[in-house]
Structures are given as C-alpha cells and as structure tokens.
Design a protein that fits this description.
10 strands; alpha/beta; 303 residues; six-stranded mixed β-sheet; 2 domains; two-stranded antiparallel sheet
Length: 303
C-alpha cells in the first residue's frame, strides 16, 4: 500500500502481518474529518441506532419514524451514531536514559518498534498519524496527517531519533495538550524518568482537552532487580554525576525506592484513567501491542 520500499530496522513485515487482524480503537469519541471506524461525539449517518428525539422544523423528513408516530401520534426522528477517523499522535521519549538497555535491545530501539507498528496500523485503517520526539523539549515534530507519503516522513524521523539530553517530558505533554488540534489518541512511549506527581497534572491536562491517552512505560529488567554482584560505577545517562557503589549495600533501599515509585505511578494512572502498560523490554513487542489493541477492543463503545 505504501510507496516507500526501504527496509526499516524497526519494522518487521511478519509482525505487521500478525497485527493486521487487530483494529486500533479509540476509547473516547474522536473528531475527525472523514468517515471512519471510531465513535464521534456528533450524530450522523451510520448503521448503529442511537436514540429518538422529537421532530423540529427543518429536520430531514426521511429520518421520521412513522411507526413511532403511529404508536404515539407524535413525530420522532431517528438518530444514529456517527463514525469518524482519529488523529494518532505518537510521543517518543528521546532523552539520554532511553539509550539504556540489555545487550539485545535498548529502550529507544524498543520504542521505535512500538511507535512504528502502531503508526502503521493506524495509517492502514485511514487514521492520521503524527510524531513528537521529546528530550529536554520538543526535538522533532511531525503533525498528524492521513496519507501514505506522510507516514514515510514519520518513519524517517523515527529512524533518525537519537537518545540524548535530559527529560522534559512533563513540560512537553502540557504543550501538546494545547497544540494538538481537536481530540486525538496520544500514545506516550517513555521510561517515565519523571516524578509521578508531575505526570498527574500532564495526564489530567490531556484528559481535560478530551484526548485519549495511552502510555507504554519501558523498563529494563536490570532496573527492577539491580542484579549486580560487585562494586559498580553507575553513570547518569542524562548528564548527572557518576556514582560508585556496592550493589549489595544499597539493594534494599533501591528496591524500596523502586516499589514506591511504581506504586505512586500506578495511583496516578488509575486516577487519571490513562491506558497504562508497564513494559519490560525483554518481552516480544508484538505481544505488548496485541494486549494494547485487545484491551481497546473490549472497552470500545464508551461515548
């Protein structure tokens, strides 16, 4: 379908073929520009009945329900759910910490795979796809559009993304909440090296602007387990000072801090009604996307 035949390191045709049978649904009504498969806040033409309402002068007479008139001696108009397309805005964290990862794959590489596959699936069903690369600010941005050539521009930016700099995710999410036009599906792919309380206001801002928010929280198993057995020099990948430590001496405090962070983050995403996915980067990314898509299919219909 797409004009670009270049091989992309983050796109696997076998995986995309496996995912093709899973539609990408919005959890909230979207405001698109053409007919699509997502619920709209407006009424329109569809096969799905919504409700009756009283006839008012100017309504299309073809939508009158004569059976309802025969039962009640009053004029009623049938209304149907309108379906539209959506804007899918991919937000990829490209700060320095995203360069961390196991020997097989880093967080940034895993994030590229997630973003590439989700963008491809959205474009396949006629949705607009855009991308924002985030470090200490907006590094690169591609506004959502719905054509195959535009998707290639998104892939080019994904391919060129390099992890460097500090994390300014919270500030950028506030900016995107205001600058992304109309309602959108905002997919955030990050290791979330941000205080949970600062994320709370970001998520609530996005939700206030009627955006549907999904978060893939990328974690390396080493970050959770601190599985080191000798003194190590730990580097801050976002430019902070290095720390020399004996892992066995700090393991208990480290595990406690990680647990508290994850518990606080869980509370934030639950209160903000965010579609949150904690993701270990040693798991096959297609399984992560399948869970994401299936979860959205089961929750479809919330208006």
């Amino acid at each position: 379908m797409f004009p670009d035949r270049r091989s992309r390191s983050f796109l696997d045709p076998a995986v995309l073929s496996k995912l093709a049978g899973f539609p990408l649904h919005a959890r909230k009504p979207m405001q698109g520009t053409v007919s699509g498969r997502h619920p709209s806040p407006h009424r329109g033409s569809s096969v799905e009945f919504a409700e009756y309402r009283k006839y008012v002068p100017g309504d299309d007479l073809r939508r009158l329900d004569w059976r309802a008139y025969g039962r009640s001696d009053r004029f009623y108009v049938k209304e149907f759910e309108a379906d539209t397309n959506l804007r899918c805005c991919l937000v990829l964290d490209t700060s320095g910490s995203m360069d961390f990862g196991a020997p097989k794959i880093s967080k940034i590489e895993y994030g590229r795979k997630l973003a590439g596959a989700i963008g491809y699936l959205a474009a396949q069903q006629g949705d607009a796809v855009g991308l924002a690369c985030v470090a200490d600010g907006l590094v690169r941005t591609v506004p959502p559009r719905r054509n195959p050539a535009h998707l290639m521009a998104v892939f080019d930016v994904l391919e060129q993304a390099k992890p460097q700099g500090t994390t300014g995710l919270a500030e950028v999410l506030h900016e995107l909440a205001e600058t992304v036009r109309q309602r959108a599906l905002v997919v955030i792919i990050s290791d979330l090296f941000v205080e949970p309380e600062s994320l709370r206001s970001c998520f609530q801002h996005l939700r206030f602007r009627k955006h549907d928010v999904a978060v893939f929280h990328l974690l390396d198993p080493l970050e959770l387990n601190l599985n080191f057995h000798r003194p190590m020099r730990f580097l801050d990948m976002e430019g902070g000072p290095a720390i020399f430590a004996e892992p066995n001496e700090i393991a208990d405090r480290y595990q406690k801090a990680v647990r508290e962070y994850l518990e606080n983050l869980k509370a934030v995403v639950l209160e903000s009604a965010v579609d949150y996915h904690r993701t270990l980067i040693d798991e096959a990314y297609e399984q992560v996307i399948i869970r994401f898509l299936v979860g959205r299919t089961t929750s479809q219909g919330v208006r």
